[in-house]
Design goal:
This is Shikimate dehydrogenase (NADP(+)). It is built from ten helices and twelve strands. With about 280 residues, the protein is α/β, with parallel strands linked by helices.
Length: about 280
């Protein structure tokens, strides 16, 4: 089975390591390769990609929206999100999916099942592609109390407008979010703030957080962001970015192969890989 990733830049992607581990665990002969494409000649490169004999591929920046023009079909959830990060190729047909939101929720359910109840109050920080995927997945899963904080509110309005229940999503400023952190059961940081090489940066302070609140950060380099460090020191429970990274990859692998795998051992191995072990 031939799989891969398209994007730019992708040289340091962990996807080949993860998916080659999954292939090995599933006992499926195959390989996962990187295809770093140039944005200026995307359509022509797609024609070349069709000759590679792929069974499927992942999509990362800057092509998650652009790829949708090349597909024969798009999953309903991916349509709602407006971005595709996984493509399955079957009988020459390309179908697009988005595994970010489901990968996030699956990883959260495994670690903190008690937090995955519809009545939990949720704060999402950021309004980019990852935030949109997570928001729509949480709404689809029945979460009813979601606030979204971003530097600009226009992005949040755009992100929620296609959702039938968007009236239930509160739009607040980052300053308001900082003042109200004690109101939330689950706080999800979806931006790149705090990512290497800017490890000291933090999107909001968690001074007023309640003990036992679950705080998630989708950044996985570093494993412990400044945001998560403050959360842990304040008695919150933390959910790290590499957990979502693995579970969204496992969901993509399931789409391609129909095979469900046990992620637990792989999570520890991925953590060791990120630590450079």
């Amino acid at each position: 089975m031939k799989l891969g990733l398209i994007g730019n830049p992708i040289k340091h992607s962990l996807s080949p390591w993860i998916h080659n581990q999954l292939l090995k665990q599933a006992n499926i002969p195959g390989e996962y390769n990187l295809y770093e494409l140039e944005p200026g000649s995307f359509a022509a490169q797609m024609e070349l990609l069709k000759k590679e004999g792929l069974a499927g591929f992942n999509v990362t920046v800057p092509f998650k929206q652009k790829i949708m023009m090349e597909l024969d079909a798009v999953d309903e959830q991916a349509k709602l999100i407006g971005a595709v990060n996984t493509v399955k190729i079957e009988n020459g047909q390309w179908k697009g999916f988005n595994t970010d939101g489901k990968g996030f929720l699956n990883s959260l359910r495994v670690k903190y099942p008690d937090i995955c109840n519809a009545d939990r109050k949720v704060l999402i920080l950021g309004a980019g592609g990852a935030a949109k995927g997570i928001f729509h997945t949480l709404v689809h899963a029945g979460f009813e109390n979601i606030d979204i904080a971003n530097r600009t509110t226009d992005r949040v309005k755009e992100m929620t407008k296609s959702n039938d229940t968007s009236d239930g999503a509160g739009i607040i400023t980052l300053a308001d979010a900082e003042q109200r952190v004690a109101d939330y059961d689950l706080i999800i940081q979806t931006t790149t703030v705090g990512m290497k090489p800017h490890e000291e940066q933090q999107i909001i302070s968690l001074d007023n957080i309640r003990e036992g609140t679950v705080v998630s950060d989708i950044v996985y380099q570093p494993l412990m962001t400044a945001f998560l460090k403050e959360a842990a020191e304040s008695g919150a429970r933390i959910h790290q970015g590499h957990e979502m990274l693995l579970y969204q990859a496992v969901y993509a692998f399931e789409i391609w192969t129909g095979t469900s795998l046990d992620e637990h051992g792989l999570l520890e191995a991925l953590e060791a890989q990120l630590k450079g072990a």
